[in-house]
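Changelog-adjacent note: as of this version, every example in the card shows the full chain rather than a window. The one below runs 233 residues end to end.
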Amino acid sequence: MWKFLSVVLFGATLACSANANVVEFDTSDPLYMLKTEDILSESTVSYGRDVLRFGETLSYGLNDRLTVSANVNYQIDFVDTNDGFTSTDLGFVYRAGASDTFISDVLAGFKFGGSRQVRTPWYADSTYYVGWRFGRQWAGVTLAGTIQSNWIFDDARGMAYIDFVPEAYFRFDPEWRLGLNATLRKATTPSFNEEWIGAKLVRQFGRTQYIGHIDYEFEHDDVHIGARVNVLF
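Full-length structure tokens:
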């Protein structure tokens, strides 16, 4: 994991000297914030552990500092009978501070509903979360980190977990971008501890982005691949 973080820092140095590009419509940037009355649609598909998942997230900029969003996911399990909708997520992001040297956001939300047979710790019913996202944007690179605490009050599985997510995002030219990330999860139920690393490749066309990603989890030797389409209205 420390080797991964070293690679991220080295890549950040290289990207700072790359061809600069604006961040105005770069919706895959980890510190991106919607402008007033902007709408962002994120359509996703991913596959891992014999499960195919589809998702849709809609976000709306109430103003330049507050964004509200909702998402829903559906999964098809090719081995078991765990098909159905996962929990619906309602959340918001508030830009607590922004300067030339530091950006700070507050995250909070609530997950509810969904088919009981598809509930996992990250899709469970009655989940509350709050977090802090921070970092800095340059013309060629964004470095960010997120700390998020989650509490699950599902009758079948009461637990909590904390995620730490460092991210590095590089804009190499006006059309292509590369993102690297890691997720370190510590849960009150140790069997749900996780360590992920991931990468995404982004192609920009105006206000639309096409993203492919791959993620690997060390604790359970798990690989997820997927794609996402972001459309900014």
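Structural remarks: The helical segments are 2-16.
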